[in-house]
Amino acid sequence: MTSGVAVFDPRVDPEPAGWRDFQRRWRLHAVWDYELIRLEAWTARNPPVLIVVSDAGKVVAGLSVLVCRPWRKPRYASAPKQHSRWPRIRGPVWAEVYQPWLSGFPGVVFDPGLDPAARGDVARLAERELARCLGAGLLGVLYRALDQELAGIVAGRGRLTREVDSVAVLANDFSSPDDWLSLLSKSRRASLRRQHRELESASDLLVRGGAARDDLDGAEIARLINRHRAERGKAPLDTRSPLSGAYFERFLRRPDVHTLTYHDDEGQLLAVNTMLDHPDSVIKQHWAALPEAEGGRKHLFFDSYQRAVRHLVRRGAAELSAGRRPHEVKRSLGFRTRPIFGVAVPRPVVGR
């Protein structure tokens, strides 16, 4: 195949021609929306770029790539030059092919019509363009969250491939939520039913879920989610930055984003869970809750799973994906683990 490749900085570059159609045709999850990537990039220390590969003017692949710096400061990346077409960056950087808000899913998407050999060629073409744009300071490329098939496609001589973690997945073999409950242990089933009754009878608790929520304050949602992430502690290899209120203002209003919220009777936000709706894989995404010492409530975490399974059954999607740890808790809710892999590509073999 004859391909063209370009690296787009969403902070200053317009949306690539054909990207929206590619996103719609292959039913990419909401986080691949170019405007959302733009809003994320403006407040990121390691800003994402989008690599788009085209054949005869038709988009055949996209890669979400975080340009990462080894130092911890400053908090934000330096401002881009208007339409600079990626001037070379001073100092060492590495590139992570990673969709940071899609836990357990890769940061590269292909036209399903591409066979494995073509996919490998496209990935190496994108690597070469990334190296050209970032210059001599590029240390290498790291592919995160690959499934076994994709890891085999981007692997090769001089590249290091490792199974790095697993993602929790619940296959939708249910005709009703009761089918799911029947698979759980007697003690877990009893506790979920008891918790549900307690929360349903709480007169001072307002629970609301739905898509395209226009009743929520994006800044309030961002504060709770970013606080929750900070309190859990940032993993040493986590290169993500906090998301902004502006990001959530757009994100929560999408028809393919389902948001579950818990408020007390005074209007205080107690917990929030976002789900990425999809005909194949519904993703249980952001979760955050106030601690009990500050007015939070017990059992909301498990209640959110019961509601997610009810949504899954109504939706008829093939699976519910719930990210990574804590696996032992998710196993008790019927989830199984699917391995995910990482592939590290040192600079000497980038594009080869």
TrEMBL record:
Which Pfam family, giving just one, matches this sequence?
A: Acetyltransf_6
Where is the BioF2-like acetyltransferase domain positioned along the sequence? Answer: 186-330
Q: Which SUPFAM superfamilies does its entry note?
A: Acyl-CoA N-acyltransferases (Nat)
In its UniProt entry, what is this protein called? Answer: BioF2-like acetyltransferase domain-containing protein
Q: What organism does this protein naturally occur in?
A: Amycolatopsis marina
